[in-house]
């Protein structure tokens, strides 16, 4: 009985250590490989950016420096996860239905990359040493108060979001 308990605990510890190292390797690859995804995001967005900026009739920013500071904080992975969820659940689906048909494939590409990024951020929460939650309430409230202009503002600021995500991931890359 003692031997089987010891054997079970040994296998359990090995499994946990193996899972942790496999996850760490996955997260390393994710962070190291993100520049290619970022390049694809920027290239794709450049094809639709003028449309959204031309239709953005408000001076209020959705993504300001406080968001970048949240990304750089100990709760950065929560901030990124919440922002990505906001874009995936609210902004991009609305953009896909309201955009000219020729922009729909580009919006789909951005959605796909954001979806994968969100999954990786969640999977790598321990890797990023994530702390307390981030609050998205101010952004969602401002977005809703802008009505239709909120869509154009949020889509027009995607390049700024790409920069924030890049800064966050670069900061995690240099911690080795």
UniProtKB/TrEMBL annotation:
User: Source organism's superkingdom?
Assistant: Eukaryota
**Molecular function per GO:** cytokine activity
Broad class of the protein's primary localization: secreted
Q: Which SMART domains match?
A: IL10
What are the BP-aspect GO terms? Answer: defense response to bacterium; immune response; negative regulation of inflammatory response; regulation of cytokine production; regulation of intestinal epithelial cell development; regulation of Notch signaling pathway; response to lipopolysaccharide
**Pfam family for this entry, one:** IL10
Q: Does the keyword Signal apply?
A: yes
Q: Which UniProt keywords apply?
A: Cytokine, Disulfide bond, Secreted, Signal
Compartments reported by the entry? Secreted
InterPro entries membership: 4_helix_cytokine-like_core, IL-10, IL-10/19/20/24/26
Keyword Cell inner membrane applies: no
By sequence similarity, the record places it as follows: Belongs to the IL-10 family.
What does the function comment of this entry state? Immune regulatory cytokine.
Put simply, this protein is called Interleukin family protein
